[in-house]
Amino acid sequence: DELYPSGLYWNISVQSADGTFLVQPTAHFLFVPNGHICGVLGPSGAGKSTTLNALGGSIPPQSSLSVNGNITYYDATSETKTTGTINSGSVAWLQQHDSFFSMLTVKETLDMAAFLELPHLIESQRNARVQSIMESLGLTKLQDRPIGDPTTRHKGGLSGGEQRRVSLARELISNPKLFIGDEPTSGLDSTMSEKVIRLVQKMVQERDIPCLLSIHQPRSSIFRMLDEVLLLAPGGRVCYHGKSEKAIGYFRNLGYECPEETNPAEFLVDLVSIDVEDQSTSIQDEIRIIKLFEAFQEYQQKRRHKLSSMPPITAVAVEDCSTTSSRGSRRRFHIIRRFGRLLLRSWRQNARNRKVNILRLLASAGNAMLFTTIFKSIKKGVFTAKSVAERVSMLTFGIVNMSMIALLKTVDLFSKEKPVVQREQLRLQYSSLEYLFSKSIAEIPLDAAFAAVFTTVLKMTSGIRTGWRALTGTFALMTVAGASLGFAIGAASPSADVALSSSAMIMVVMMAVGIINPSGVDLSDPPPLLVRALKQISPINYAVKALCLSEYKDAEFGIDTGGKPVNIFSRARIMMRDLPKMGGLALVKNGNQVLQELGLADETYAGVMKQLGVLSLVNLAISLIGLQTKNSGLSQKC
Ligand SMILES: Nc1ncnc2c1ncn2[C@@H]1O[C@H](COP(=O)(O)OP(=O)(O)OP(=O)(O)O)[C@@H](O)[C@H]1O
After folding, report:
1. DSSP code of 84?
2. Alpha-helical segments (H) within 8-100
3. Which of 165, 188, 220, 530 is 20 to 30 A off residue 607, Cα-Cα?
4. Is 191 in the pocket of ligand 1 (CB under 6 A)?
5. For residue range 96-141, what is the model confidence (pLDDT) as tens digits?
6. Measured from the CA of 22, which atom of ligand 1 is nearest?
7. How far is the CA of 49 from the centre of ligand 1 (A)?
8. Distance from residue 442's CA to the centre of ligand 1 (Å)
9. CATH homologous superfamily, domain 7-90+183-325
10. What is the DSSP string of 447-475?
């Protein structure tokens, strides 16, 4: 009953670069008291998300928006006023879709959130916080279950409703000052939607914080759960803000009666919607909205006597969010421990992905055996001239196979975990460099292990000349290069689908420019500039070159006599029979000549491997820039 109750006060406007209002200012402050849920209603494009983004201090990536005005939390007990933004951990943000590291258990997920959100607490305090939030959201029984991937719904994973509860727990771990949900019920059936809102209600009441939820077409039962309603017309014009149970009466007084048995939420949204298909109706709709907007301004003016009894909010110094954010303390938090936790999380996500790992193992061993069967001339113990072209083909297919698997796996995993990483980076919990570095290190052992399986089987079953170390080293580095290309594609793509389809296209191009013609290269007719440029960025190009250099360098041809002794004339005859008769490799005498015909005479194995390493680093740098750019788009503003 205080004159000036605790809660969130705001009066803001949001304008696009051309000056258009996406959210219009109101005559006076709008207010949501602590422990209340305010439903943000309005037709599509009215400005609901923009309002929430502005209030939460996060503006979408494409932002060229300017936010003006005041957003203040008032605490009546201590009579303090502060601002807060998502980066300071003071805003909980329940997203439309849940995103997690799918292989982590519920407890591991919340432990990680507590570790990142609450660096100032000691381990036992963080554990206590995790236990208490799991209890209040009914997650204790599920704590050892893996979250699972909502798209593939793997065995043992959580249901959609259970995942929402984990999202809620993760958002509330840091004791936020404001709870925001942008369409938190979208994609859920009506029963589940009700359950989610009920849980949110319980949590915001328990924590005594204000809550704003945009809800698309809430059913009557959900509307009844809302304490307040903020009704927005297109252009972010506030046409009503106040108690939900008073909304229908308010519009009745303005001459708009809600028909009986009509969902009040639908009635309200219809009042501020514009029928864009019918021009005459749309003009009438616009006139009605202007009237409603002006009526609300007047309504606020009339209620002013109440507000004027409070000290004007702007007169009190409001802390600047850039100085109050715990950015500094987060950054100071022990970097090595944080890096260790990120590394462990990536490792668990990779190593526990049993289905993918078994498939990779089978593909690595199976393809090596398949290649040995196809390229029969590469026999053990003898390097015949007949096998020259087949060796190039076999090594090329091997490289394409391993890099394709590494790239697709990385793009898939990276795109799925990107929303989680962006959420954490928006809260300034670690840098993109830390994430990429830890992820790369966590993935290298597994990638190298699969490369080792492939090369071991290849070495055991075929007569490949390259030594085991060079073979495994090249394939392992190629796998890392494929993965780093996957990171770059994943970071630059707006969604998982775009990343997957573009990686297939990019791979085809990398293959086309990377493979070496096994019948020799015409050095007198160099490829066009574009192809030469693409070769420079194709990891396949470097890996194939490296393997050819290792396979042919100083190799002398022998003959396959099937173990029978043969005289010198027969040897010469078999040798002549085996030599390639056509193309650039025709009548080559030894491995060095093969390298010359393939255009590799001036290259060295070490030099090419270095280039492959540099390319991997460049791809990692591109991923870093991609992640940074996306995060800076989610800039925080007061
Ligand atoms: N960065 C921007 N620059 C210019 N216009 C923008 C920008 N972001 C959003 N808009 C426009 O602002 C208006 C409000 O968008 P907003 O996403 O807030 O609507 P919404 O009410 O949440 O819609 P929906 O219910 O469909 O999600 C839209 O017309 C949108 O096109």
Report:
1. -
2. 48-56
3. 530
4. no
5. 778 899 999 999 999 999 998 888 888 899 999 999 889 888 899 9
6. 12
7. 7
8. 39
9. P-loop containing nucleotide triphosphate hydrolases (3.40.50.300)
10. HHHHHHHHHHHHHHHS---S-HHHHHHHH
